[in-house]
Amino acid sequence: MSSSFYLRKTTTTDLPILFEHQLDPEACAMAAFPSRDKEAFYSHWTKIMANESNILMTILIEGRVAGSIVSWEQAGEQEVGYWLGKEFWGRGIATEALNQFLKVVKTRPLIAHVAKHNIGSKRVLEKCGFKLAGDDKYLNIGNEEVKEFVFSLDGN
């Protein structure tokens, strides 16, 4: 990855671009997560940005917002998730972002959930040392059942 790639703390100025990324139908299908309307999107981000225990970083490529990578505590476990704008797919950016993020987030185990049909994201997790820990299913915000893999990165 070139030196024009880096992560930084997410700011409110990133949100309009992140909002546009999550509107893409193909990205939503891949993540098995429906897009939020503007009000719901900004409400969600305002809430997660106010929680100081969350780690929220923006992925920048050549000065452009390419996506986000976040970590939060849920049900006693530290979770990680990421979203990359579709124009940045297939270039190793998510893998590089996650590798760099893992130097910031030291909590282990670190848990990631990925829709079973999202082969690209599954490969990113595997390349970064995550191991398949099981599978699960849940109802997303669109009330659709999502079958997913659960990955874990242990401290060993």
Give the CATH H-level superfamily.
Gcn5-related N-acetyltransferase (GNAT)
The share of residues in helices is 25-40%
Shape: globular
Query: What is the average per-residue confidence, as pLDDT, rounded to a whole number?
Result: 95
Major sheet = 7 strands, mixed
Number of E-state strands? 7
H/E element order: EHHHEEEHEHEE
What does this protein look like?
Strand 4 (77-84), helix 4 (93-104) and strand 5 form a beta-alpha-beta unit. The chain has helices spanning 15-21, 25-31, 38-50, 93-104, 119-127, and strands at residues 5-9, 55-61, 64-74, 77-84, 110-115, 131-139, 145-153. It has one domain (5-153): 3-Layer(aba) Sandwich (Aminopeptidase). It is globular and about 35 Å long. It has 156 residues and is α+β, with helices and mostly antiparallel strands. The chain has a seven-stranded mixed beta sheet with strand order 1-2-3-4-5-7-6, with helices on both faces. The model has no long low-confidence stretch (mean pLDDT 95). The protein is 31% helix and 35% strand.
